[in-house]
Amino acid sequence: MARGQRKKKQTKTTRKKAPPRRSLIVRLGYWTAVAGVWGVLALAALIGWFAYDLPSLDKIADPNRKPSITLMAADGSRLAAFGEVYGETLTVDELPPALIQAVLAVEDRRFYEHPGVDPLGLLRAMVANIEAGGIVQGGSTITQQLAKNVFLTPERSYKRKVQEALLAFWLESRLTKDQILSLYLNRVYLGAGTYGVDAASRRYFGTSAKDVNLYEAALLAGLLKAPSRYNPANDPAQADGRTHQVLLAMVDAEFITAETAEAALKSKGRSQAAAGGRRPRYFADWVLDQVYDYVGKGQQDLVVLTTLDPKLQAIAGQELRAALDSEGSKRGVEQGAFLAMSPDGAVRAMVGGRDYGASQFNRAVQALRQPGSAFKPFVYLAALEAGWTPDDRMVDGPIRIGNWAPKNYGDRYYGDVTLREAYARSLNSVSAQLTQKVGPEQVAEVGRRLGITSQLSPHLSLALGASEVSLLDLTSAYAVFANQGRGVWPYAITEIRGSNGKVLYRREGSGPGRVVAPSSVNRMNNLMTAVVEWGTGKAARSKRPSAGKTGTSQDFRDAWFVGYTAELVAGAWFGNDDGRPMKGVTGGSLPARLWGRVMARGLEGLPPQPLPDGGVVVASRAEPKEEEGGFIGRILKSLTGESDERTSAGAAPKEVDRGR
Length: 660
Fold this sequence. Notes:
Blueprint (H helix, E strand, L loop, with lengths): L1 H16 L3 H31 L17 E4 L5 E5 L2 E2 L10 H11 L11 H14 L9 H10 L6 H17 L2 H11 L6 E2 L1 H9 L8 H10 L12 H17 L5 H10 L5 H5 L3 H15 L6 E5 L3 H22 L3 E7 L5 E5 L24 H10 L7 E4 L18 E4 H6 L3 H11 L1 H11 L20 H12 L10 E6 L4 E4 L11 H16 L13 E6 L5 E7 L4 E7 L14 H13 L12 H7 L8 H11 L20
Parallel strand pairs: 1-5, 3-4
Antiparallel strand pairs: 1-2, 5-10, 6-7, 6-14, 8-9, 10-11, 12-13, 13-14
Helix pairs in contact: 3-9, 3-10, 5-6, 5-7, 9-10, 10-11, 14-21, 15-17, 15-18, 15-20, 20-22
């Protein structure tokens, strides 16, 4: 009995120690809850760590961009834009359905279905990244791309992807889908400095994004993948290929039919890319350097109205490149420049070199070169102001002034000549004698008065263009002879407006006023017309009255022709940046021919206008008779395109280039 009681007691005790099944479930639930809490805390800490350095969400309303400068040509067309260019802010409802569909087809087809992050897209990207061993695909939705564009950097990392997702959820919680898509389309970069579909549409097609056709809509959507690569201004063929891909994606998404896509490819779209490929960058750079001098630096966008004539600019660029391509190699010349302005100084065309992409150095503005005989107008004007006339006579022959013995080209002398003939034939000995008589200081004063800003050394060698000048200064100085003696300040800006259309600057006035008496201007026209009619500048002659002067520095290092009609004043220069001599290139050859071609094409269709005092008639009547033995020589020179105008300056100082 005692054994039975002990057994019973033992059994009872054992049952008390065994935990009930319900207690196990409770314990399991407890620890699960604890783990869950810690998991939530860990997740919160992780999210907090990712969110710690997120930028302020206030940036959604602040573009925080640099102001842009848009340059407009004289005819109202768009030349170029610099800075971050934004167009009109447009909503989804204001944009063509084709544009919305094109964007969704290639960027985010499930945009209106996901909550800001697309798990399927992320999974697809994750697999691709694992296979590649790095981040090669983002899988981002449009909402995530907006978050990245507005708040984040382009850095590719897992941290940034998490931050992108967090911001995407926040955007989806605060904005509607249409608002998100509108923000994206107005902020995204689309190449050529443009932000938003409207700015890009105006840049590439010359129209608002509200008016794009199907092909143009697909092209804009295609830019989202790689704006620089598929930019139609840079590579129209690449842009067209990408547009084809977008149209196929629209067919695959069942937004359009295959027939509609094919028709869009055939119709193409309006394109301003071709014009953009040859933008007047030398001119644009020159203008940009001046803009803030007029209005100061600020935060608003600026629209700058310029004086440039796109037609004349295109002609000048084409003709300069053609001249260098056809004769540059055989004549040993690599560079050239061309500048044209109206007689009041408004710059109409500026080509600063052969290829802006290869060299941004503007030879029309920045280069200082010896003008040779193209400087002689200042010598002769000084003489005319001292009482000389075009019909006064001097003896052209070998001379020596101290240790200096200037010589004519080829040691050829004409004896007793009028100043008109000496000027037209560019006789160095006569120019040197005139400089000696009026004084080199007076010649330098005349040059400065007419607008030469570089240093003019008052030495006798100034008679042959020993002091260096820029093409801009020399051309603007010649403008004085085309406008009856009024000084010229070359300019390119007529008006500057703010982003609200308010006029911030408008050009008023026309220069320093009269700097040369009309009687002296008329006499100079008489001289310079003779140069073109029968002198060293015959290659520039055309059907309209024109005048000018050739110039060639020593050893053919520089060749110039600067001249004018009643409508335009223009200068052409050829040479090498390193100062290497060319192979016989004179001002009467390449520069004069270039000048003549540009002026003929640029002024085509305009009726010829006389120069002051009808200079062409006076100069033609004054053409000298051919002397014995000179006719054959001149025929040979005309056949080779050369002239008697190069400097040969005898014992002039070695460091000076003497030119005519």
